[in-house]
Give the backbone structure.
Amino acid sequence: MSETATDPRAPIRMRHETRMRLLEVTAVEDITPLMRRISLRGDMEGFASPAYADHIKAFFFPKGVEPKIVPIGPRGAEFAPGERPEMRDYTPRYFNVEAGTIVLDFVLHGDGPSSSWAAQVTTGDKLVIGGPRGSSVIPNTFDWYLLVGDETALPAMGRAIEQYPADSKVVAVIEVADAAEEQGFDTKADLALTYINRNGAPAGNNTLLLEAIKAMQLPEGVAYAYIAGESRMSKAVREHLTSERGFDPEYVKAAGYWLLGVADAQEPH
Ligand SMILES: Cc1cc2nc3c(=O)[nH]c(=O)nc-3n(C[C@H](O)[C@H](O)[C@H](O)COP(=O)(O)OP(=O)(O)OC[C@H]3O[C@@H](n4cnc5c(N)ncnc54)[C@H](O)[C@@H]3O)c2cc1C
């Protein structure tokens, strides 16, 4: 079914002011052995993130360059030569504009500027973020909701699960390293949550999630599916849902949050 102005299931798209923010780390907590929760405070004026699939850009500056905000020109942020940071996408897990706070959850996967930053961060450190530049809010007008993801999608899936109203039917299937990485969520929704543990299988190079979905009996009715995590997994699950399980492709979003073996490889849109 195609999206029209009158389609009650059409996503509501919005743009936000593009702005860089200099934040200070106020707390670091390992909520599970491989998931580091980093709380930050600073200029959050005008920050908006109405959708669970939103992301901010986190900036990681070269060694010796102090994190700082720079003017935004027609071609984006204007960094001095040699000062251009690496950028990675993260989900605003919690935020409070009045209090000037935001919380990000980082998977400690062991490689890359972002994971390395998170592995050694301490309170008082600075982080520059930008965005979200836009949001796509999925209305709560579907018969049920399917969430499929790996641990990088836990922050988005957690937000989704917590925001569904009472009586919504939600099926969530989430791949993590092992039982110690499983998180619980508060929700009013009718939630069926299944964790798939890799238990030593490699991250991003297995078919555990796909096989789990294939074997599942799913509810009746029109569903919205959000799939997020390693890119190839995401595409394979989307393909299965649309070609073998009767999902409407308009209502299946498959986001590549990372790609095995490739740095900075997100495909969020
Ligand atoms: C919309 C969106 C929201 C996201 N939200 C979050 C979030 O809230 N929390 C979060 O932790 N991640 C999140 N991610 C994923 C995160 O941006 C990527 O994992 C990113 O690649 C991490 O950057 P890095 O510098 O650590 O590694 P990179 O420099 O990008 O990659 C280095 C190497 O590590 C591998 N790699 C990257 N991520 C992983 C991983 N998770 N496990 C194993 N190997 C990996 C790459 O394949 C590459 O070989 C999100 C991505 C998107 C697109």
About this structure: The CA atoms of residues 20 and 130 lie 4 Å apart. The chain has a mean pLDDT of 95. Residues 55, 88-91, 105-107, 109, 111-115, 152, 155, 203-204, 255, 257-264, 266, 268 surround flavin-adenine dinucleotide (CB under 6 Å).
